[in-house]
Design goal:
Layout (H helix, E strand, L loop, with lengths): L1 H12 L3 H5 L3 E8 L6 E4 L2 E5 L2 E6 L3 E5 L6 E4 L2 E3 L10 H10 L3 E3 L3 E4 L6
Parallel strand pairs: 1-9
Antiparallel strand pairs: 1-4, 2-3, 2-5, 5-6, 7-8
Length: about 120
């Protein structure tokens, strides 16, 4: 019985590993090639100007705006968050990670964007 309790406790402790460890976010460096000082908004909230480092989630929507240039919008690509594998056979852990969006993290650590001049 003690062995079973220990195994059950271990499974519950490692459930939803990706949510607990990094929350599905990853630090990404954002640069605009020749347009430094471009305003960056993430999901509609202004976050600062380039160059900038932000903690982003997969599927975040980033908008780049600068006077004299066309506005550009990018959706952050994602890749599988390998930390989620620590859920092993815990359906609860996989479910929590899926609901919180922690199964995926941004695909790239560096994002270089070039804006087109407006006409």
């Amino acid at each position: 019985m003690k062995k079973f309790s220990l195994i059950l406790m271990t499974i519950l402790m490692v459930s939803s590993c990706a949510t607990i460890i990094n929350g599905g976010k990853s630090r990404v460096a954002i640069n605009t090639t020749k347009q430094q000082g471009t305003t960056i908004s993430v999901n509609g909230l202004e976050m600062g100007t380039t160059p900038l480092q932000l903690k982003l989630k997969a599927d975040d929507i980033i908008t780049f705006e600068k006077d004299g240039f066309e506005t550009k919008t990018i959706v952050v690509d994602g890749k599988f968050n390998t930390i989620a594998v620590l859920n092993l056979f815990s359906i609860l852990g996989w479910g929590i990670d899926a609901i919180t969006g922690s199964l995926y993290i941004p695909d790239s650590k560096i994002m270089n964007v070039t804006l087109k001049e407006s006409k």
